[in-house]
Design goal:
Elements lengths: L3 H28 L2 E13 L5 E5 L4 E9 H5 L7 E5 L6 E6 L13 E6 L2 E21 L13 E3 L2 E7 H4 L5 E6 L8 E7 L7 E3 L2 E7 L4 E9 L1 E2 L7 E4 L2 E9 L6 H4 L3 E4 L9 E5 L1 E3 L5 E2 L6 E6 L18 H7 L10
Parallel strand pairs: 1-4, 7-10, 15-18
Antiparallel strand pairs: 1-3, 2-7, 3-6, 5-7, 7-9, 8-13, 9-12, 11-13, 14-17, 16-22, 17-21, 18-20, 19-22
């Protein structure tokens, strides 16, 4: 059993510790500079009834302005800057939910809440509706209409369960699934997993379906004589060898006679920096339209030469206007003797 002296010492230590803590808090609150700081308060929600869904008005953050000692405000942690909002009392329709109370946490009595925006939110809650609807596939391609023929497009599973706001799901009788057809496919079955396109706030079970289709239109192979295009500003300063290439391509049969489509095959080079008179082998590049496939480029490089600069014309000989001294002496007449008076 502890003695009375020991109990007295314990009480003394506890009293001193309390006085020290109180003095420290007084110093931090009263001696430090009082400042205003603007912060963001993150909002977390819980308790939403399973038969309701919020369709409008939800707020994720609140901007608050607090006042307090500078030292304490610097110690504010991210955990403090969050608040959990209970949504268990929501009813169908418009609900006003307070976001920030007039005072902060009890553990932060040294802080004063000066302002907050917004202080409340008006959320719209709707009943949740589930509905089983079919999935209808619509095939398309970037080529002109009729260029690609598709046999039939099969979707597995053919029906899905939609879940979402009653106002949206009640108007959905089917899910339209756009399927982009492989323009290079012909005569073989194509399989693909596709995510269902759904309105916002609507989910589907399952969220993905498998698509199978067969392209029945044929493809043909043909050869094209294509001029090699030079991508350079001063094209006239270069020469190419060869200047044309025969390119073997495969295209949809329905587009073989389309001149506008076939002209989209582009053969070009990017010449490296060359000095006048230099030559180099440049890699041939191909740009093909949708649905076209190059079978076998016969030439991988072409010779690019830059024209040499013309040689400067020789300077004309300059004729001297001063005659040689001998000529000047020979041609100068002697002065005639003068008589004496």
């Amino acid at each position: 059993m502890p003695s009375s002296a020991g109990r007295g010492m314990s009480r003394t230590i506890t009293l001193l510790a309390s006085l020290l803590m109180a003095s420290l808090m007084w110093y931090m609150v009263c001696v430090n500079d009082i400042i205003d700081v603007q912060m963001e308060l993150r909002l977390d929600y819980y308790g939403l009834p399973p038969n309701l869904i919020i369709t409008d008005g939800l707020v994720n953050r609140v901007v608050i302005r607090v006042r307090g000692p500078q030292t304490l405000l610097r110690s504010v942690t991210q955990e403090y800057l969050s608040r959990s909002i209970d949504l268990s009392q929501l009813k169908p329709g418009r609900n006003v939910v307070p976001l920030v109370k007039d005072s902060l946490r009890r553990s932060s009595r040294a802080f004063e809440l000066v302002d907050a925006h917004p202080r409340q939110m008006a959320v719209l809650a709707e009943p949740v509706l589930e509905r089983v609807v079919p999935v209808v596939a619509e095939t398309y391609s970037p080529l002109r209409r009729g260029a690609i023929e598709v046999k039939e497009c099969k979707v597995t599973p053919s029906v899905v369960t939609l879940r979402g706001p009653e106002s949206i799901v009640s108007g959905l009788t089917e899910v339209t699934l756009p399927v982009r057809v492989d323009t290079q496919s012909a005569g073989r079955a194509e399989y693909r997993d596709v995510t269902l396109p759904l309105p916002q706030l609507v989910t589907a079970t399952p969220s993905e379906v498998s698509v199978e289709y067969v392209v029945t239109s044929g493809r043909v192979t043909t050869s094209r004589d294509c001029p090699v295009r030079l991508e350079a500003v001063d094209k006239e300063d270069y020469t190419l060898e060869p200047a044309k290439l025969a390119v073997l391509v495969e295209v949809p049969e329905s587009l073989l006679k389309s001149s506008s489509y076939m002209r989209k095959l582009d053969v070009y080079i990017l010449p490296p920096p060359l000095k006048p008179g230099q030559s180099v082998d440049a890699v041939v590049r191909y740009r093909v339209p949708e649905g076209m496939v190059i079978q076998s480029p016969p030439v991988r490089t072409v010779r690019v030469s830059r024209r040499a600069l013309p040689e400067p014309a020789p300077a004309p000989e300059r004729q001297s206007h001063a005659a040689p001294a001998a000529e000047r002496g020979a041609s100068t007449p002697e002065p005639a003797p003068q008589g004496h008076n």
